[in-house]
Specification:
The complex is a heterodimer of chains A (156) and B (183). The longest helix of chain A is centred in the last third of the chain and has 15 residues. With 156 residues, chain A is an alpha+beta fold. The relative contact order of chain A is 0.15. Chain A has a three-stranded antiparallel sheet. Chain A has a three-stranded mixed sheet with strand order 5-4-7. Chain A is globular. Chain A is 37% helix and 16% strand. In chain A, strand 2 and strand 3 form a beta hairpin. Chain B has eight helices and seven strands; from the N terminus they run E-H-H-H-H-H-E-E-E-E-H-E-E-H-H. Chain B is globular, with a radius of gyration of 20 Å. Chain B starts with a strand and ends with a helix. The chains are: A alpha+beta (156), B alpha+beta (183). Chains A and B meet through strand 1, helix 3, strand 4, strand 5 and helix 5 of A and strand 1, helix 6, strand 6 and strand 7 of B.
Amino acid sequence: MTGAPEVPRLRFENLDEAISEMRRRGLRLSTARRLVLQTLFAADGPVSAEYVARAGRIDEVSVYRNLDVLERCGLVHHVHLGHGPGLYVLLGRGEREYLFCDRCGAVGAVTPGQLNPVRELIEDLFGYAARFTHFPIVGVCARCAGLPASGHEHPS
Amino acid sequence: MASISVSGQVASRRVTAAISPVPPRPPVAATHRLAAAAAILREHGLRLSSARRLVIEALIVADGPMSAEQIAHGIGGRVPSSDRGSVYRNLERLEQIGLVAHVHLGDGPGLYSLILFGDREYLACTRCGDYREVHPRDLDEARRAIEDRFGYRVQFSHFALLGLCSSCVVEVAEPPRYVARLA
């Protein structure tokens, strides 16, 4: 049911490291593939394939194909933030889990460790091993809920 | 927590009405569902047209949230089938007045249900596709833990809480036994 392949996540800090990880897995570095990676490095969060095509000036079909390849090889993954298409983000600095405000579209990215207490609670209550990497926790952010913000910076 | 801005598609996305302004309704007995639905329609100045009636009846016989497609097919023939376009239009209208809500249990289309019985929240398994419907109070402890840490006031009624269900957790952890038995 879900299109997120379970592959080992690769570690890399910059474009050169990403490219060498890719080559180590037998993938060629085409021009389009380099542009897709560059665009994802330049983006400061998860972006749509459409955005990658526009910002990187790459043919959209080629963007989809390359994102798919990069996802299968563990360099990229996609997350569904509310309605709309999956959004792609690099995995190099470790996996992130997401909180999404259904009202204003704000996105909070946290390390899995930050959500472990919540995960343990859910596992105790329901036996579910919850993961918020592919589908975020959805609700309203502190600002939209009219609460004092607790460590949550609202994107402006 | 890192807060990130999202470029491209998300920024311009229509803000959804998921956190519904419609107050939760008190539970309604099963036998009165159609009458209750008709009363709510009347409150909003809407008729119980035959097309709307088909949609509502489909949702009454359904044993869980259903796609517009399944509703148009009469829930596997349990009620008469109806025109898909009309189903979409009516679901949208019924959702606007708070009689129907849709949930996303992972990838795939939204699944609709009547909300005559009070709110429901969902947990869904990304591996086997199974899901669990829970009363909101069952998730309050998790909700509080999330709000205390991140300030987000969350609901799992529009987007389910996703992960691996207890059976899949075990299966993922333990490789299939038949390999050992063959040896």
